[in-house]
Structure formats: structure tokens, C-alpha cells
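Protein record

Derive C-alpha cells from sequence
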Amino acid sequence: MTTSRLAANPLSVVEHDVGARSSRLRIHAASLARNKVALVSLLALMIVVCAALGAPWIAPHNPDQQHLALRLHPPAWVHGGSWSYPLGNDALGRDILSRIIYGSRISILVGVSAVVLQGLIGIALGLVAGYHGGWLDSVIMRLTDLQYAIPFLVLALAVMAALGPSLKNVILVLGITGWVYYARVVRSEVLSIRRQEFVEATRSVGASNTRLMVKHVLPNVMSSIIVLASLQVARMIISEASLSFLGMGVPPSIPSWGDMVAEGRTYVTTAWWLSALPGLAIFITVMAVNLFGDWMRDELDPTTKTYGDEPAG
């Protein structure tokens, strides 16, 4: 009876879909509220993103302005520190708090942009390989095997050495060296979906392969893609920091957490805050992304979802 009423009234179908989505959102929101670790991780991520977006208005000082009289000035809670510079000053007298805030822009921009780029490449290749199979699948999978054989950071360093350090090159390098993860995951999902009845039924009514892949197969692998992307953001943040630490990331004129850690190595015994504070920013951001990504995986993947909080029936 309910199905026939929905079929007879298109408006009811739309209202039913909207109601189902709202119900799912409420379920996810309630689950997030119960999971304190995921909730705190989300709040930490929101703070980092807000700092990145509002850096020009939030930062108390110009991150590049030098005050040699304040060289190696300690944080405010250390003897000799000042609340005018809460996290102290670096070897050139620049405000560390302002540089950490501006450095969050690089980490978020590189993390998200690289994930989008590698996702576009990997998802497209994974769809084609899993759906069509045959020699095309073999060629794409051998390419992924070849890239897996080369250590990720070594490959990124080699490409950056050839292209030169710049923000655009960092995003490009991390994007083209990380697509293999998406290709593998998407291909394995598509292999199990392409023979299902709804795909065969859509093919029997004359749908093209492109329409089948984009409209019917891709939506069924989106949950895995979302989870993988959330975890890859953390990996890209660490990769960018590693490249900057080694002098192969963004130019030194742009505040970057990895570059700040590298600059503080010389003073680690006398001015620990130069490396420790940007290193702490990397740690908190990456941990927040990973923990929130774990919660998303449990929510979106029914095979790993647990129901221990539900009352026994």
C-alpha cells in the first residue's frame, strides 16, 4: 500500500527521500554526540579550518615581520615571556603563533587539494579497470604495482627535486603519487558491484557504460571513497610537512609547519618551542583527522559498524 501511494504521487516520493536523508543525518548526529573522541576531533578540525580561513584577521602579528630585539623570546608561560607574543618568537624575532596560524592554511590547502586531485585520477582509473576488466584492467593494475614498488616519499622527493619547490608543485606531486590507493579500493568495489542485478537491469534497457559507471556504480562506492579521502588528508598533511622539513616543500617565504620544525632544529636545546609548538600543531591536526576518519569509517561501513550501545533485545 505504501509503495503504491509513493508511486502514484511523485511529490510523496520526494518527501519520502528527504525524510529518509533527514533520518540518517539525525542518526549520524546522535552517534557523533555519543562518541566523545570523534566529537572532540571534529571540534579540533573546525578550529584548524577556522584558523586557516581567518588567518589575516585572527593572527595577532604579521607572520613575516622581524623583531631582532625579540630573537628567541620564550612563550608567555616561560620566565621572560610576554603575552604580546604568547608562543614566543623564532630566531628572526617573528611571532610563532601568527606563523602557526598561517601555516595551517598550507596544511589544509595541500591536504584537501592533493586528496581531490589524487581522487579524481584514482577513482576514474579504478572505475574503468573494475568495470571493463580485460587488458585495460591489467595495464592499470600494473601501473599501480609499479608505483607501489617505489617508496612514496622517495618518489615525491625525486619529482620535487626536478620541478623545484613551490606550493603548486607540492600539490601536483602529492596528487599524482597518491592516486593508487583510490584506484585499488574503487576497482575492488566495482568488481563486486558490476555483476549485481540492478546493474544488469540498467544495462538491459540500453544504458551506456559511461552512464552505468557514473550514475549507478560510482554512488555505491562513495562511502569507501569518503572514508579513504578522510584518512588520506592526514597522510598528505604529514607528507607536505616532511617535504618542507627537507627543504623540498613550499618556499621558505611561506609559513609552513614542516619548515618551522626544520628551522628550530638548531635551537632545540635552548629554544625548544621553535620546533615543539609547530610539531604539536601537526600532531593534533593529524590525530584529529585520523580519529574522525575512524568514526566515519564505522558509520559508513556496515561491516565494521558495532551496536554495543544498543540495548539487548
Summary: The mean pLDDT is 82. Residues 96-132 form the longest helix (37 residues).
